[in-house]
Amino acid sequence: MTVETMLRGIAGFFVIVSVLLAHYHCSYWLWFTGFVGVNLFQSAFTNWCPMMTLLRKLGVKG
Asked: HEC profile for 20-35?
């Protein structure tokens, strides 16, 4: 898997989990959903995301 593919998968997973947590536990989890969305949005313009840096350090090929 490439960094971009893993990033999309991780972001999707985070969004699904945070929405479920907001629904079943506490609505404050939607702040995390928004945080993921803002990071994805800014990475579209800057081509940089903190998760991409972490994945590269873990050895994922880009």
From this structure: HHHHHCCHHHHHHHHH
Query: DSSP assignment of 1-62, as one string?
Result: --HHHHHHHHHHHHHHHHHHHHHHT-GGGHHHHHHHHHHHHHHHHHS--HHHHHHHHTT---
CA distance 5 to 35: 19
Residue spans of the domains in the chain: they are 3-57
30 — pLDDT class (breaks 50, 70, 90): very high
pLDDT value at residue 1: 87
Q: In this predicted structure, what is the pLDDT of residue 62?
A: 73
pLDDT per position as a tens digit, 36-56:
999 999 999 998 999 999 999
